[in-house]
Write a structure and sequence with these properties.
64% helix, 334 residues, 16 helices, single chain, Arc Repressor Mutant, subunit A
Length: 334
């Protein structure tokens, strides 16, 4: 549930006009109050969609006026009237875009989380969008909010849908490998190879290869798996990699780790946002290829030239970082 500051501050008796916080509470309460059944989620979703449909869409350019009122009330010297109007403006921006969240969440259905969970996460992103939206740049709020909603949803998919119900024997193997992966870099000064992991754990290379990656592919908890490593789990992992071999997957994960560590350690928050948007880093999306400067600029509410400048600075940092170069060379040599 969201923070207290995101609770409805306007007329709480007007049930038709709940904000994202109220919307999430509505979903949670509906689920918890119903008897467990296959119909539960459907009933809750239907009731939720009916409720948010009562919120009118914004008129042309109304989002600019609401955003202006919101930011006016956030200033240090804002009056009580300004602060009240700011909260009302924030809630209206949120309420009028709850259907946008549903529309985006539907596109990510069957990605590891239930649709209602995706909607709740998207609502959190919607609130964040309201708080960061800059009306002075002339972009429509819905355009700007779309990225924040998607980001919240894809992050939730990555963070929350990686749990796999595995047999205890497989869990023991994975735990041994995990400990070795954590200990060996301190000794080697780099990530260990499959051969080195096998020597350190006594686990055959084939078995290490087979279980590697099973903690990073979204799989439903209800999915049945076998009692040992010869079960359908291995087939599932292979099928979801579109024919990529385990060795290639290992290299891809290592490369992804290098990129993510470099981004986290070297870049500012603004630079991270630009580079992840531009190249779709860590996004759970069917869309391929990098975004244009104009697309990123519109999402962030800045000019394309500003995006280009930040991207150039990022590339300079990555090219001139010794640790990044060393890690890439190790990958090539292996």
């Amino acid at each position: 549930m969201l923070n207290e500051e995101n609770q409805i501050l306007t007329d709480s008796n007007d049930a038709a006009f709940f904000d994202a916080s109220g919307a999430n509470e509505f979903i949670t309460n509906s689920l918890s109050n119903q008897v467990e059944s296959s119909q539960k989620a459907h009933n809750t979703l239907a009731a939720y969609l009916k409720e948010i449909s009562k919120n009118p869409l914004l008129k042309n350019n109304e989002d600019f006026g609401l955003a202006k009122a919101y930011h006016k009330g956030k200033k240090v010297h804002a009056t009580l009237k300004d602060k009240k109007e700011a909260q009302e403006a924030k809630q209206k921006l949120i309420r009028s875009n709850l259907r946008l969240v549903v529309s985006i969440a539907r596109k990510y259905n069957s990605k590891g989380l239930d649709l209602l969970d995706l909607i709740q996460e998207g609502n959190v992103g919607l609130i964040r969008a309201v708080e960061k939206y800059d009306y002075n740049l002339g972009f429509r709020f819905s355009t700007y909010a779309t990225w924040w909603i998607r980001q919240a949803i894809t992050k939730a998919i990555t963070d929350k849908s990686r749990i796999i119900r595995l047999p205890s024997s497989v869990q023991d193997v994975m735990q041994k490998i995990k400990k070795a992966r954590e200990a060996l870099p301190l000794k080697l000064g780099r990530d260990p190879t499959i051969d080195e992991l096998s020597d350190a754990t006594g686990i055959p290379k084939k078995k290490i290869t087979k279980v590697s990656g099973t903690d990073s592919i979204p799989i439903s908890l209800d999915l049945e798996v076998g009692n040992d490593l010869d079960s359908n789990l291995g087939e599932l992992v292979e099928n979801n990699n579109n024919g990529v071999t385990p060795e290639e997957m290992s290299d891809q994960k290592f490369l992804s780790k290098i990129v993510n560590e470099a981004i986290d350690n070297l870049l500012t928050d603004r630079e991270k946002e630009v580079i992840r948007l531009r190249f779709r880093i860590n996004e759970e999306s069917c869309e391929q290829g990098e975004r244009s400067l104009n697309e990123v600029a519109e999402m962030m509410g800045v000019s394309p030239e500003r995006v280009r400048q930040i991207e150039s600075r990022v590339m300079y940092k990555l090219r001139n970082n010794k640790d990044v170069r060393k890690s890439l060379l190790n990958l090539i040599r292996e």
